[in-house]
């Protein structure tokens, strides 16, 4: 039975666990300290959470005050978040990768009173802007030796280490216990739980107000859709909790079900941590799955001879077995035996690298290429896809555990409506819900709009911008283009990404880019062609493969030239581009490209923290290079 009710709040989820799901001696979280994984029980966590709440109350924090945090995933995030949630304050999470200017804007726009800081590097950023943040009254580094970074600094806000804050909170806890309980009970589901600032691909970041109702009902609906999650599951968390996807799909789901959260050390150590923790569920982004796919394909074919033949034979048997099973057909004794052998000889070795106990992986934050999803299905690793935005809490749809349609983002979750609307005429083609699902239903293409419990309260201090995206009938306009296919939602692209060539043809970059990303040579690709006669691109090669193929050292990638002009490398890249172009309509095919030496980066302001390209920034920054692309075509087709 789903433990989340219509009246749940974020702090009530944790209270429900210790009263109805686990004893407080059970393991809540685990993280690595040195070389050892250290477990944290619910009791240990609650002691710190209550102490932090007491400290906040003692310093005068009130309901609806905004308390900010800028740090990577870990138990400290949970302590701080739960402490402020249970006294009715508002979590204002800031991406650690943002610039000082962006951080300053968010702190001032939200009026944040406190800021938890996760590293010396981040503290140095904050010291430069702290006195410009007029509402900030307390700076809280999570490390104790912060003084060596602040001894020459003078700022208006007080400063205290997180451990000292907890110690002081414990000293006054008895005086505030009853107040904490009454604060928790007085929280309304309509109260704002968090402010999450949009990544700002098109302008100034906007603070998305998500209520306790938004967040808990999103979890409730997701658990109604994916019913296989239990209190015995182990989630490995590595995506940023400052983003709503990881906060809902891992943190809040674990708060609702009593599943254990294990915090990965870093993305670089993720593979090692998976082998150690043996998680049953991992939330991830498509790019991670693409990299696993690329490396597995490369490794499986590297030796040549019998090993390569065995690898390809296994994939073929896995594909045939999967297709029949997903169609509800019996694979038969021979194919079942062949697939079992393929699993023993090939697939099991890949699964071992994930810990060997995965129930499923959940992919979100972007489109997963269809061939990558199918690859994991062939291996017998289930990948569920979800779709949504920060403004929708975030989940609008997610793949059902027992019904996979690759290339889609699943069935609409319970108790919301999703419609497809004509971009030009505003005519609504269809309105679909969880209950109207039909496995053979297909619709026309248009903008995806939604209404229901998932839709945000609005943008903080921006009523006009709120009215621009939530219409008079309550529909939130996502700005995404899509349709329904086999009853599931299918995303085509972002409306703002759409390129309209000089002949009036609409080109959606994402599916075109995904076609070219099938090449293991390509790490990133950025399509160009709005109001132009044809499509061109910037292509960033796989550094590893480029180095191996041409014997390049690190110095090659540190050269000042942004683009690689070496004809050998351009021709080498053109081999795959030319081949993959045959899968596209003629007006979608790349007619020219430049090979960019290094990836687009957050540091250069070219991509957002959620790895979305800032189209206007890139087009302005590389305007001269773009013009050159239209002076002469490469022999592509």
TrEMBL record:
<dbReference type="GO" id="GO:0016020">
    <property type="term" value="C:membrane"/>
</dbReference>
<dbReference type="Pfam" id="PF00501">
    <property type="entry name" value="AMP-binding"/>
</dbReference>
<protein>
    <submittedName>
        <fullName>AMP-binding protein</fullName>
    </submittedName>
</protein>
<dbReference type="GO" id="GO:0005524">
    <property type="term" value="F:ATP binding"/>
</dbReference>
<keyword id="KW-0067">ATP-binding</keyword>
<feature type="domain" description="AMP-dependent synthetase/ligase">
    <location>
        <begin position="30"/>
        <end position="460"/>
    </location>
</feature>
<dbReference type="InterPro" id="IPR020845">
    <property type="entry name" value="AMP-binding_CS"/>
</dbReference>
<dbReference type="GO" id="GO:0004467">
    <property type="term" value="F:long-chain fatty acid-CoA ligase activity"/>
</dbReference>
<dbReference type="InterPro" id="IPR000873">
    <property type="entry name" value="AMP-dep_synth/lig_dom"/>
</dbReference>
<keyword id="KW-0547">Nucleotide-binding</keyword>
<dbReference type="Pfam" id="PF23562">
    <property type="entry name" value="AMP-binding_C_3"/>
</dbReference>
<dbReference type="InterPro" id="IPR042099">
    <property type="entry name" value="ANL_N_sf"/>
</dbReference>
């Amino acid at each position: 039975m789903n433990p989340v009710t219509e009246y749940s709040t974020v702090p009530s989820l944790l209270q429900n666990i210790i009263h109805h799901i686990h004893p407080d001696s059970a393991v809540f979280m685990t993280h690595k300290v040195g070389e050892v994984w250290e477990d944290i029980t619910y009791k240990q966590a609650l002691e710190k959470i209550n102490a932090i709440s007491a400290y906040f109350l003692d310093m005068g924090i009130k309901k609806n005050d905004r308390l900010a945090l800028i740090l990577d995933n870990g138990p400290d995030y949970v302590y701080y978040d739960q402490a402020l949630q249970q006294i009715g304050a508002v979590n204002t999470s800031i991406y650690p990768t943002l610039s000082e200017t962006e951080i300053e804007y968010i702190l001032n726009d939200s009026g944040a009173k406190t800021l938890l800081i996760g590293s010396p590097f981040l503290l140095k950023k904050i010291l430069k802007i702290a006195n410009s943040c007029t509402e900030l009254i307390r700076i809280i580094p999570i490390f104790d030796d912060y003084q060596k970074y602040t001894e020459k600094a003078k700022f208006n806000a007080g400063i205290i280490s997180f451990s000292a804050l907890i110690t002081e909170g414990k000293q006054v806890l008895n005086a505030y216990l009853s107040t904490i309980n009454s604060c928790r009970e007085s929280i309304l589901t309509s109260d704002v739980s968090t402010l999450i600032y949009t990544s700002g691909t098109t302008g100034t970041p906007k603070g998305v107000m998500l209520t306790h109702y938004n967040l808990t009902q999103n979890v409730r609906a997701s658990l109604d859709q994916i019913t296989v999650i239990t209190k015995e599951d182990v989630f490995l968390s590595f995506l940023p909790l400052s983003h709503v996807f990881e906060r809902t799909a891992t943190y809040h789901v674990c708060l609702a079900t009593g599943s254990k959260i294990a915090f990965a050390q870093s993305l670089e150590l993720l593979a090692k941590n998976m082998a150690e923790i043996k998680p049953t569920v991992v939330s991830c982004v498509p790019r991670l799955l693409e990299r696993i796919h690329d490396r597995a394909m490369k490794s499986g074919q590297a030796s040549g001879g019998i090993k390569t033949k065995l690898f390809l034979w296994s994939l073929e048997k896995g594909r045939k077995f999967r297709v029949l099973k997903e169609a509800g057909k019996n694979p038969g004794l021979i194919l079942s035996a062949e697939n079992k052998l393929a699993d023993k000889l090939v697939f099991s070795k890949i699964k071992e690298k994930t810990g060997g106990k995965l129930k499923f992986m959940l992919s979100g934050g972007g489109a997963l290429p269809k061939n990558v999803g199918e690859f994991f299905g062939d291996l017998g690793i289930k990948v569920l896809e979800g779709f949504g935005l920060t403004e929708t809490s975030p989940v609008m749809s997610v793949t059902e555990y027992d019904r996979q349609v690759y290339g889609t983002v699943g069935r609409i979750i319970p108790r919301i409506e999703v419609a497809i609307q004509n971009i030009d005429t505003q005519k609504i083609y269809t309105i679909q819900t969880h209950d109207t699902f039909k496995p053979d239903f297909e619709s026309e293409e248009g903008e995806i709009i939604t209404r229901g419990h998932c839709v945000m309260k609005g943008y903080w201090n921006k009523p006009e911008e709120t009215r621009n995206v939530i219409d008079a009938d309550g529909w939130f306009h996502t700005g995404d283009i899509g349709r329904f296919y086999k009853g599931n939602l299918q995303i085509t692209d972002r409306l703002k990404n759409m390129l309209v060539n000089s002949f009036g043809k609409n080109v959606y970059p994402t599916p075109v880019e995904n076609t070219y990303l099938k090449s293991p040579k390509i790490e990133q690709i950025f399509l160009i062609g709005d109001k132009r006669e044809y499509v061109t691109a910037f292509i960033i090669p796989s550094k590893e493969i480029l180095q191996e193929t041409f014997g390049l050292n690190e110095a090659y990638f540190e050269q000042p030239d942004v683009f690689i002009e070496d004809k050998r490398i351009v021709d080498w890249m053109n081999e795959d581009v030319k081949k993959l172009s045959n899968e596209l309509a003629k007006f979608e095919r790349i007619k020219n490209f430049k090979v960019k030496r290094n990836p687009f980066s957050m540091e250069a302001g070219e991509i957002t923290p959620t790895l979305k390209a800032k189209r206007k920034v890139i087009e302005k920054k590389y305007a001269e290079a773009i013009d050159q692309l239209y002076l002469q075509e490469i022999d592509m087709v």
